[in-house]
Amino acid sequence: MKFIDEYRDAEAVRQFAHAIVHITTREWTIMEVCGGQTHAIVKYGVDELLPPQITLLHGPGCPVCVTPVELIDKAVEISARPDVIFTSFGDMLRVPGTHGDLLAAKSRGADVRIVYSPLDAVDLAQANPCKQVVFFAVGFETTAPANAMAVAQAARRGVTNFTILVSHVLVPPAIEAILGSKDNQVQGFLAAGHVCAVVGFEEYLPLAAKYRVPFVVTGFEPVDILQGIYMTIRQLEEGRAEVENQYARAVRREGNIPAQQLVANIFEIVPRKWRGIGEIARSGLGLRAPYRTFDAERRFGVMGYTAEESRICISGQVLQGKKKPFECPAYGTICNPESPLGATMVSSEGACAAYFRYRRPEANRE
Ligand code: SF4
Fold it and tell me: Is the pLDDT of residue 318 over 50?
């Protein structure tokens, strides 16, 4: 298949792995931002092809993983209301809140449904005017345009029984929080290709200049990732801190302007809390004033929730690249995909789930 097969080609993988060994003269630490990249790295053993001087850290780019506990609690509470149809992508149903997850709420009788597009939820609301239909709008910059489109459609069609529970986060502020932390180890970033397909990569230029770190916009197949690592190492070895684009087949510097305009019409930048990390200023999206009637938190009066995170789970440190999953005492024992303690074990893009699936816990402890 075009754009897939050539980026899984074994000979190309070997060539990039060899080229990385050839140019690496000292230790470097690189973070892949996106959970999809983490999943591919662990699945294909990309990290095992690298010379020992290179350390890959897994970043916070899994939206399911960083959705805060209190948002899950709000979702569970709203779903339990008798007149509500609560809709979501399937990956949010097993994320644990304080008192269970949406799947458990469904088993208790809540009308929780999986949809494949927020526009399906708008249609569902239009077909069920006596019900309140809520969509769990979770994600990074990648899903924001579709969620903005759903709100715009609901407004245009006069579907007033549709709301969204918003948990949108933005990548560059999280990267700046990592770079600005006093114990930061990251010297270069693989930026998430699909995020940049929407927003472009101009936002990374000031970060590269301010913190003197290279960014390489990178795709998701093994050859993409190895080429992204190669380009990052080459910059580091040459003392450059620039923004380069490995994923040119999908990403333009300016991104997708109509999608950006749609998002800017519906959403505004707000502070957001990230699970395991805490609040980061200007790191999320919230509905603009004209569209707040579509805000599920306001409609259902669930604004001021707080929640405790698991004391055992170290997913916050995993999400910031400070620990590997197998350094967590619960990894593979009391925390596993069947019984996850933290969100990084629930989502297939979570680092803990990727390690559990592709690396035996026993092997990781050796
Ligand atoms: S293994 Fe489980 S408890 Fe440990 S950090 Fe990962 S999700 Fe949290």
Answer: yes
Residue 310 has pLDDT above 90, yes or no: no
Amino acid 61: pLDDT:
82
DSSP structural state of residue 214: -
Backbone phi and psi for residue 94, each to the nearest 5 degrees, phi listed first: -110, 10
Closest atom of ligand 1 relative to the 352 alpha carbon: 6
Structure tokens at 316: 């916050």
Per-residue DSSP letters for 153-191? HHHHHT-TTEEEEEEEE-HHHHHHHHHHSTT----EEEE
User: Do the beta carbons of residue 218 and residue 193 sit within 8 Å?
Assistant: yes
Residue 63 CA, ligand 1 centroid: distance in Å: 16
C-alpha Rg value of the chain to the nearest Å: 21
Q: To test ligand 1's pocket by mutation, which of 38, 95, 277, 318 has the most ligand atoms within 8 angstroms of CB?
A: 318
Residue 309: the pLDDT is 82
Phi/psi at 194 (5° precision)? -70, -35
Measured CA to CA, the distance from residue 215 to residue 243 in angstroms comes to: 5
pLDDT band at 360 (very low <50, low <70, confident <90, very high): low
Q: How far is residue 22's CA from residue 194's CA, in Å, rounded to a whole number?
A: 29
Residue pointed to by tokens 């596993």: 336
Share of the chain residues as helix, strand and coil, in percent rounded to the nearest 5 = 45, 20, 35
DSSP code of residue 83: T
Q: Is the CB of 344 under 6 A from ligand 1?
A: yes
Structure-token pair, residue 307: 């929640």
pLDDT in tens, 53-108: 999 999 988 888 899 999 999 999 999 999 999 999 998 998 889 988 999 999 99
The residue whose CB lies within 8 Å of the most ligand 1 atoms, and thus the one to mutate among 65, 101, 315, is 315
Task: Please report the atom of ligand 1 found closest to the CA of residue 335.
Answer: 2
**Alpha-carbon torsion 200, 203, 207, 209, what sign?**
positive
Instruction: Label the pairing between strands 215-218 and 278-287.
Output: unpaired
User: Which pLDDT value is given to residue 5?
Assistant: 84
Closest approach atom of ligand 1 to CA 344: 7
pLDDT of 294 over the 60 cut: yes
Rounded Cα distance between 42 and 35, Å, is 11
